[in-house]
Amino acid sequence: DVNNHTITLSGNLAFQTGGRQISWGTDGTLIQNGNVGNWQIDADITGFNNLYLQGGYSKIMYSNLAISGNLTVESGIYLNMQGYTMTGQAGKTFSLYGSARVYASAASPAQAFPSGFGTYSLSATSEVYYNGANTIDQVFFSKPTYGNVYFSNSNRTITSDGLFDMTVYGNLDF
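^ thats the sequence. predicted structure below, dont judge the formating
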């Protein structure tokens, strides 16, 4: 049980398939601050409470993740969601600082970008890449005000979730 505690991790965190999950409680926090190589978020990890991605390199998802607290992606970090989804909670915040990047490639009808957070705080210099594979349609999440948005690959359809108008501080590149 990690409730009211913080784990600071510079390496990997792995679970046995079908093994026990960490109970994060309502205030447990993981700070991943590794500076050497990529952090591969174990496929058997299904969620976190507060998650801070710091240090360097990429943080790579290998399963869908549920975040019950706040998620902060620090400047210089690349969050690679691959084809997975991330869901947050109303009343919690998703923050993307400075030169941080998110690579979102989940296939429609799933939201490609982290969804469900009550507040989105994206730096004007942050970058989001909707980079689903060719012919894989994606749903664009319209709630956050983006820094820079890039849609890569061709032969696919990108559809807005239709909830808000799209707002981008910087570049919008199709």
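The chain has no helices and 20 strands.
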